[in-house]
Amino acid sequence: MESMSENYSRGQYQPQSRTRTAPPHLRAEAARRQPSGRGSSPQRRKPSNGGSGGGRGITLIALLVIAVIVGGGVWMWLNRTVYVSVNGQSAEVKIDSGLTDILSVSGVSPKPGNLVSVGGNVLEEGGGTAFTVKVNGDELTEGEIGSFRAKGNEAISFGDGTDVTESSHEEERESQPKLEPASSVGAVTFVSQYGKTGRQKFTVGDISGEAIEGEVIEPVQNVKIESVNVRPENGRKVVALTFDDGPSKYTQRYLDILSKYGARATFFCLGSQIPGNEGLVQAIKNQGSQVASHTQNHEQLTLLDPDALRSEVTQTFSAISSAGGGDTTVLRPPYGALDTSTWAASGGTFSASIIWNLDSLDWELPGVDTIVENCTLGVTSGSIILMHDGGGNRDQDVEALPRIIETLQGQGYELVTINELLATDSRIPESVASGNATIPEGHVWASEVVE
């Protein structure tokens, strides 16, 4: 080692500080802690690419992993399956499943109900509810079915669907009367009651248009037809002679015979026979007898359509009135044929139909004695006897008529008109017995028959 003298002599000697130089790591620490001098700027540390930055990335990844684990767990919990009983069989379904979803995996196939009209008729098969259901024994309403969610362990029982009735609305309508036919058949059939319209509420189907009767606001009054054999009251003994198919050349001879015996009768005239015989029509009335209708052309009324029927009836009524025979709504149907449908189709143009209890069968020309017997044997008070003053040779009738009257009067019978005969039976309304009953004001006819 060189000595200090040697260094010095070489000019290399430098006086050394008395302070010893610290190791490098201590100098760096001292420099860091030493405050900066005047005018000097503080030194900033540069961030390192490693160290704390790497730690934050690891933390973020960890959080994401935790979130995935937690979220997956929640998802699995929310979508877990539970067990329910469906129609007695165990079924595994997703939690909160609705009934439609449960049904789809159950293997149960309930039959849907139908869409029906307000009258109960099927409008659409399968158009009703899809099913009915009970949960734990309780029937669910439609709203409860839609809101049900399975939680597990429910006992579910599906059944067939129910019918659904179409939507409807309420209407107030007029109720039309119907015709109530007679319950029996007698020689005199008449209108015992005319009809009145009523008002009633109806339920009307929006699809079908069907109308179902509801609350009655004003009751309807039906037309009523009754049929009887006349039962004279107060012990009176009365019978009615009747003559068809006139007036004819025989009519006046009949009237003369009736007048001779103080008897009266009823002449059922054909409208087609009246022109040219108007005087005979007036003579019938003047004698005290009655003029009524045997229709216009002797058509069978049960075979006519409503318009032809009414024309056949009303023409004769008009002809009788115009000829001076008086107003009448009484007729004798040709062949005695008149049924319920004919009454309904008549429009109320006539009030009474008169047939007979005893038939002379004079149209067969059986002989005077037979005609007399046919008109007198079996007669009772109230009997209506059929003869003819037109439609053929009536010489036998002209000869038989006095004997008939004498026989009946000899038995104590009074020979009267149809109107007079009807008036003896209180079951027959006075308006009908008048011979000219018509539809009263405020009343109507019925074209439909009660079933």
Notes on the structure:
With 451 residues, the chain is of the alpha/beta class. The chain folds into three domains: 81-165, Roll (Ubiquitin-like (UB roll)); 168-223, no CATH class; 228-433, TIM Barrel (Alpha-Beta Barrel), CATH 3.20.20.370. It is 30% helix and 22% strand. It has 13 helices and 22 strands. Strands 15, 16, 17, 20, 21 and 22 form a six-stranded parallel sheet that branches. Strands 2-1-7-5-6 form a five-stranded mixed sheet, covered by helices on one side. The longest helix has 27 residues, at 52-78.
- Say which CATH homologous superfamily of the largest domain is assigned: Glycoside hydrolase/deacetylase
Mean pLDDT over the full residue set: 90
**CATH architecture type of the largest domain:** Alpha-Beta Barrel
The top-level CATH class of the largest domain is Alpha Beta
Principal-axes geometry comes out as: rod-shaped
State the CATH topology of the largest domain: TIM Barrel
Query: Can you tell me the residue ranges where pLDDT is under 50 for at least 5 consecutive residues?
Result: 1-22, 36-44
Rg over CA atoms: 58 Å
Topology:
Elements: H1 4-9, H2 24-33, H3 52-78, E1 81-86, E2 89-94, H4 99-106, E3 115-116, E4 122-124, E5 131-135, E6 138-139, H5 142-147, E7 155-160, E8 164-165, E9 168-175, E10 179-180, E11 188-193, E12 198-205, E13 211-218, E14 223-228, E15 238-244, H6 251-261, E16 265-269, H7 278-287, E17 290-293, H8 306-322, E18 330-331, H9 340-345, E19 352-354, E20 358-359, H10 368-376, E21 384-388, H11 395-410, E22 414-415, H12 418-422, H13 430-433
Helix pairs in contact: 6-7, 6-11, 10-11
